[in-house]
Write a structure and sequence with these properties.
Two copies of one chain form a homodimer. The first copy, chain A, is of the alpha/beta class and 428 residues long. Helices cover 41% and strands 25% of the residues of chain A. In chain A, a hairpin with an 8-residue loop joins strand 6 (131-134) and strand 7.
């Protein structure tokens, strides 16, 4: 099947002294390599050079002689050491010209912010005579496409917040359009929560032996991703191969697979809340607002997430969440009893259907033999005084404990909505 | 001062198709680059090639013509696609010969494990005629040093558990021994917030022209990092060069430099609150708990951060934060007036010295021509009805708008504490 696939060679040139010195890790190049692999474009080699014109031009000339497509990452900013634009023009023997539309957009950008237009920035409006810019809604530097002698050079900005959307929205469509008969390597990720990596692997070990599709597990904080990857001539063909494997995996793990591909757990949870027309509020101690932050990061969350209270101190728990002081005295602030009172309290304060309460010890200090660092109680309170509480001991440093706690909280919310469907729907 | 330093140039060639496909991140090369920088060895460029003999030989020849020392990482294993040993021999015009001691050790290694010696593994006992092996107690493949025409090529194994100890125990001592008068390259990062990259550069452009130290700006979401890098014979000497430049930069940017090296802004803010014995509480709408989450991610934050309220809905703003309903009606929920009422309200609810209120439109929906996506009002309320409010328009997607909003909020808290020092301290 593979032999009929056309081979397009690409080279990636990353630009930046900070990359050469090992001060930052080149995650952009890794991402681009993955995306190109999915398209069936072979990365011939990758080069990293510093902010030095003659070395960059040499690297670009070599790359252009090796590959049909050369990508550069970084060096498109407004400062003196941003030299990629000029280096590419030199390596390709091309000229740059001022693009009035981009110039206009740049000036407007600064005017809107009441900032004088810095003359430096003007060079970001330079584009190749033969070629075109790539739209960058997330920054001032457009991407650039140079075309000459059947070679394509594509210059992409370094900040990941600009680079990643540009790859997705500009580069991939451009490549698909330009090379319609590429084969594909296509993947689907099954997102699993509530089971560790080795348990997941044990359950599906025999399903991981094929060469097409392959199945690879990746451990993340609080979840495991199973990547199913197929090679085929077309995406639908690859999808079909993947779907067969997914069905087999779901037979073993179904209730623990919470989403497919990029949907994070908070988005799944919010979707369920919206589907079931239910509202939620959160009371957080050790997670300090992280659960609220995760939920509100999803656009449209305000339809279901009414709000939250971050209550670290006992007095805040008592005054704002109506936690009975005697519970804190008898059981301690980190206890199932206080988590339950917080969940119920926040539910009443916001008038939501569901309330969730989280109290624990995120560390590094504050642990005791009975209540070690990582101990977290999580309660979910619903209508009719129904309440469910878990006692967890999470491993890791402060931020990992907090991530795992919010992950478990979200899983409890999901399970609550899925398992008590009739109960909750009937309640409205 | 530089002229007395000898400049040694190195190039790193990483070998492995899995690196090219982006399946693993090349942390080995990042580590080696950092270690070389500490020694004052300049990494000229880095190249990644797949397991392909002719491409690897080409890359090695180019590297040997650029640099005095060439490092290879990976491809020393026993399988067919481990080609680095042969490729280096070819690129250097050297011969390999069997090293009886290594052969003996390999055979012993397998005997101890009751495994028949695989014939493939014999190639791991091949060493260059001119050169020597590097000890590898953690695996079967020794490292290799090739020497010819004043060039040094050092081949290192790919598994980090073998690579890292070999760098530490073999490579660093070898380089120190071979180049006794190497200097060091040392860096310091000034973290700047509240000014964009091009404005930062405009203010210090004339200070960025030296070759030693160099000054390079890096744009991050909501901040700019200025990296000052010096070459010198010793670390203290480099520190001195850096400090002089830092002093010049501080004259121009002082109030905007919030920290040096790795301390994040939330940590600086909490430190100031603790120093000034002041407490804070946060009322968040569009940032949805992110400010609370950032502050509570710092251990010990509970001493100053009393808590927060995430109030998306108008009713939550009215009931929990005592925002006057007529303000919301007259000015809208996203307005300076409501941000001020939120800041003052949360201050009173938690009984904190300072209250901060954030209201805005994070997007992607909800924008209008008058109130576009990215519009965020932030208010800081203190004792004596003192209040300061900013109107901001932040670029980017939902999460970036939220990050920039919390960044500005933290900057306002920092400025509040720094500028009103006496006022605030006197107030206790």
């Amino acid at each position: 099947m593979n032999t009929s696939l056309k081979i397009i060679r690409a080279e990636i040139v990353s630009v930046g002294t900070e990359l050469l010195l090992g001060q930052i890790v080149d995650t952009n190049a890794v991402h681009l390599a993955q995306r190109l692999a999915e398209l069936g474009i072979s990365v011939y080699r990758r080069v990293t050079v510093g902010d030095n014109m003659s070395r960059l031009v040499t690297a670009l000339k070599q790359a252009l002689s090796n590959a049909e497509i050369v990508f550069t990452i970084g060096g498109l900013g407004p400062t003196m050491d941003d030299i990629t634009r000029d280096a590419l023009a030199e390596a390709m023997g091309e000229r740059l010209q001022l693009d009035p539309a981009i110039q206009h957009r740049l000036i407007e950008f600064f005017q809107q912010r009441n900032v004088t237009f810095p003359a430096n920035n003007l060079k970001q409006a330079l584009v190749p005579e033969r070629g075109h810019p790539l739209n960058n809604p997330n920054g001032t530097a457009p991407g650039l496409v140079f075309e000459k002698d059947r070679k394509l050079a594509i210059a992409l900005p370094g900040p990941p917040s600009e680079f990643l959307p540009m790859v997705q929205n500009e580069v991939i469509p451009l490549l698909r359009d330009r090379f319609p008969d590429l084969g594909v390597i296509h993947s689907r990720v099954l997102r699993v929560t509530g089971l560790g990596e080795s348990l997941v692997e044990e359950k599906i070990k025999d399903l991981m032996r094929d060469e097409n599709p392959t199945v690879a597990p990746y451990a993340k904080t609080g979840e495991v991703h199973l990547r199913i990857t197929a090679r085929a001539l077309t995406i639908p063909e690859a999808e079909e191969i993947i779907s067969k494997k997914e069905a087999q995996i779901r037979e073993r793990l179904d209730e623990r697979i919470y989403a497919v591909d990029d949907e994070p757990l908070e988005s799944v949870v919010l979707r369920l809340f919206i589907q079931h027309k239910r509202t939620i509020a959160a009371a957080e101690s050790c997670t300090g607002g992280m659960l609220a932050e995760r939920l509100t990061n999803i656009a449209g969350s305000s339809n279901s997430f009414l709000g939250g209270i971050v209550a670290y101190s006992n007095s805040a728990k008592i005054r704002l969440l109506n936690v009975p002081p005697e519970r804190i005295e008898s059981f301690g602030a980190v206890s199932a009893e206080v988590a339950e009172a917080m969940a119920d309290g926040v539910r009443q304060v916001f008038g939501s259907d569901i309330g969730i309460g989280i109290t624990g010890i995120a560390g590094p200090g504050g642990g005791t033999p009975e209540k070690p660092v990582g101990l977290v109680y999580i309660s979910v309170a619903g209508p009719d005084n129904s309440i469910k509480t878990t006692r967890n001991i999470f491993l890791g440093q402060r931020n990992e404990v907090r991530i795992r706690a919010t992950q478990t909280a979200l899983t409890m919310l999901k399970d609550r909505l899925l398992s008590c469907k009739d109960d909750i729907i009937g309640d409205g």
